[in-house]
């Protein structure tokens, strides 16, 4: 839930603190592209490639960060599989609810995300799957569900970011407007946490 909003805000936060960023719209809905167009263009390029050839088409930035907004894996596994061929980090956006817990950990009609990431190892040059981290999103202040779901995820072996994205009306409506000061607040804190954990690094 909220993956396009998270991706766009994260890309802006990275750009604001000095990273060279290129965003990829790897979702057939093209919501990230539409957001960029509605905002009069982002301060970094947004490219479209919602195909099963993403992993062979895209040449990653040499000294920057490519960030891809991928469609729901249960609906577009061919795109997710292709992105995972070259991804250095996979972030799962998840609302702290039992519905999203079930979708992420034990979906009934699609391949579990953990299995998709694990099988990517066979088509990667180093034969290692990328690290996976869960970002809890749309978190309500003072509600116990986020900590309960976080504990369940960790007990199940998942990496979970300490930073949580709050449920706020300005974030819900962000995809129609230009973005300012994305690095001030939760998304800036997320960038710092990723740097501290060695998940991203300058240069």
Secondary-structure blueprint:
Layout: H1 3-16, E1 21-26, H2 31-38, E2 46-48, H3 54-57, E3 65-70, H4 77-84, E4 90-94, H5 98-105, H6 113-120, E5 132-136, H7 145-155, E6 159-160, H8 169-172, H9 186-196
Parallel strand pairs: 1-2, 1-3, 4-5, 5-6
Structural write-up:
The protein is α/β, with parallel strands linked by helices. It is built from 9 helices and 6 strands. Helix 1 crosses helix 9.
Short account of what is shown:
With 203 residues, the chain is of the alpha/beta class. The chain has helices at residues 3-16, 31-38, 54-57, 77-84, 98-105, 113-120, 145-155, 169-172, 186-196, and strands spanning 21-26, 46-48, 65-70, 90-94, 132-136, 159-160.
CATH topology: Rossmann fold
Indicate how many domains the architecture comprises: 1
Helix content: 25-40%
Helix run count: 9
Total beta strands: 6
SS-based class: alpha/beta
CATH homologous superfamily designation = P-loop containing nucleotide triphosphate hydrolases
CATH class, please? Alpha Beta
How much of the sequence lies in strands comes to 5-15%
- Architecture, according to CATH? 3-Layer(aba) Sandwich
Mean of all residue-level pLDDT scores: 92
Query: Largest sheet, described in full?
Result: 3 strands, parallel
Q: Which stretches of 5+ consecutive residues score pLDDT under 50?
A: none
Distance between the termini: 31 Å
- Major β-sheet strand ordering: 2-1-3
């Amino acid at each position: 839930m909220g993956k396009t909003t998270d991706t766009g805000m994260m890309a802006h936060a990275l750009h604001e603190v000095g990273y060279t960023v290129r965003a990829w719209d790897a979702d057939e809905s093209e919501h990230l592209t539409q957001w960029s167009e509605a905002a009069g263009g982002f301060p970094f390029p947004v490219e479209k490639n919602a195909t099963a050839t993403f992993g062979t088409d895209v040449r990653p930035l040499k000294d920057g960060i490519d960030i891809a907004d991928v469609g729901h894996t249960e609906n577009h596994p061919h795109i997710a599989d292709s992105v995972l061929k070259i991804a250095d980090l996979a972030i799962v956006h998840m609302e702290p609810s039992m519905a999203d817990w079930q979708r992420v950990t034990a979906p009934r009609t699609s391949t579990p995300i953990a299995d998709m990431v694990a099988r990517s190892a066979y088509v990667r040059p180093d034969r290692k799957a990328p690290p996976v981290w869960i970002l809890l999103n749309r978190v309500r202040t003072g509600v116990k569900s986020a900590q309960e779901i976080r504990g369940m995820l960790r007990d199940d072996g998942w990496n979970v970011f300490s930073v949580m994205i709050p449920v706020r009306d300005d974030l819900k409506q962000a995809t129609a407007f230009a973005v300012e000061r994305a690095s001030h607040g939760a998304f800036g804190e997320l960038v710092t946490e990723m740097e501290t954990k060695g998940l991203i690094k300058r240069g």
